[in-house]
Amino acid sequence: MKKPIFRLDNGTPRLLGTECKSCQHRWFPALSFGCERCGAHGEELIDREFNGTGRLLSRVEVAEETGSYTLAMIQLDDGPVLGGIIEDPDTPSAGDRLEAFGTTIDDKPGIRFRRCSG
Amino acid sequence: MAKTIKDMRPVYVIGIGLDRYQRYSERSYIEFGLIAIRAALADAGIPWPEIESFYLGTAMMGMGPGRAMIKHLGATGIPITQVENASASGSTSFRQACLDVASGLTDISMAAGVDKPALIPRADGGSPGDLIGKMLAPVHHFALLADQYREQYGVTPEQLAAVAVKNHSNGSKNPFAQRQKIRTLEEVMAPPYLSGPLNRLHCCPIGEGAAAVIVASEDAMERLKLPTKRSIRVMASASRSERLYEPGENWDVALTRETTEQAYREAGITANQLDVVELHDAFTIEEIIYTEAMGLSEEGNGGRDIAAGEFDIGGRCALSPSGGLLSMGHPIGPTGVGQIAEVVRQLRGEAGDRQQPGANTGLTHMVGIGAVCLVHILQCA
Among residues B356, B351, B366, which one has the least CA distance to residue B173? Predict the structure, then answer.
């Protein structure tokens, strides 16, 4: 059974990751095998929820048989860098502020990113 | 204090052999693996029983393919080791063979690479929603890297495409290359695109093939009366893995920079002494960023310098004269061994139409799924 990688808090996505108490390194998605920076493990590693807000690092258009989409690398304000899909009528540029939003993908809850509304 | 390969006894490449890289076929790997091995033995002018240890780089063929192949040369009972290190499997098998000779464990060793593509589903075959928090398929990873590089340094689509144009031109002169067709800038920039600006000519073909090289000590070369003129000295063998880099740091670049700097220190040379470089150009953007990471171009100038022809054959340093992964191909296991074969051919002055004039010092570079990096430096004896 795959562990969930996010939850919706009143519709706002919270990304489920890990933080190392020893060195404060954070990563996503959650993995409890050991800290890549300092090697701490066991109780030194704690579950951590990250905000879905961050900054766009890079993006590309990908065309597949099932449709096209904008793939992006996003630097979360809380630390980790992750890959995600942008759904925004005005395609953001590198450096723009992004936020995750909950949506439905293949009849299941999922996450997309868009320009920050605030 | 830890030693480097240069602190031990000298190691020389004395034989090289290849079978042309190609698309997946029904041929057995044993058939084309033996072609490369026998070519290397013939090139060195020695018989198989002189080989004292055998390393086989292979990443996609499962357990123990080595003996099933080399028994057909006459089973001599030598140690056989299969080496899997992703795209750097062949480079790692070469390093291991060199270490055997350098340490005195053997006088003559062989490193080979052989592979057939695994028929696996596409890594990005699921819903795009699956991408969050997972490893991206390489084509997307490097398309994103190209976009990031464009934002930082303003590389143009034409400069990115110039890498593929150059390497396909070089590969058109290489009888061992999978792709032997000259490509125009228009072809390299034309749709359909796989990801961002990358069409298939920006991406290396993954097929099948084989390569083999033989390394020897001075003792062995003297005993067998091998011509020193055709023997190429291994000056450095650097092998590193990815550290945890700071947020925002380009880890593809950082790993290559660290490993190359280590190799330069071992060999006692600087980047401007390199005449020939075979690097991991699986995607066009990689040649640009690694050129900079190796100190061959200033940061941000790699694309401009390549497009200006500075790294053509006949330029200040020939980059990927074999055609590189983009044109010669990337059958995984053999790739790193094939790079050694190309640099040796260049340093011997035996590269024919694609010869870099006056080549004296060369470098090979492979990364394995971004996590490992191997750099070797070779020089005329």
Answer: B351
User: Which DSSP symbol is given to A5?
Assistant: S
Distance CA B291, CA A85 (A): 31
Say if residues B361 and B273 touch (Cβ distance below 8 Å): yes
Domain membership of residue A80 as a residue range: 53-115
**A1 within a domain of the structure (yes/no):** no
Q: Do B278 and B378 touch, CB atoms closer than 8 A? A: no
Q: Count chain A–chain B contacts defined by CB atoms under 8 A.
A: 80
Whether B192 contacts B177, CB under 8 Å:
no
Interface test with A, best of B132, B139, B202 (most A CBs within 10 A): B132
* Residues of the domain holding B76: 5-118+206-230
Joined tokens for residue B207: 């097929």
Calpha distance B74→B81 (Å, rounded): 17
CA distances from B367 to A30, A86, A112, B259, B279 (A): 27, 30, 32, 10, 9
User: What CATH number did the domain enclosing B90 receive?
Assistant: 3.40.47.10
Residue B331 lies in a domain: no
Give the predicted TM-score (pTM) of the model: 0.95
For residue B56, pLDDT beyond 50? yes
Q: CB burial class (10 A; 0-12, 13-18, 19+) of residue A78?
A: middle
Contacts of B197 in chain A (CB under 8 A): 60
The predicted model gives A83-101 an average pLDDT of 93
ipTM: 0.88
> pLDDT by residue (tens digit) across B193-227?
999 999 999 999 999 999 999 999 999 999 999 98
Q: What's the token pair of residue B52?
A: 């004292």
B145–A contact, CB cutoff 8 A: yes
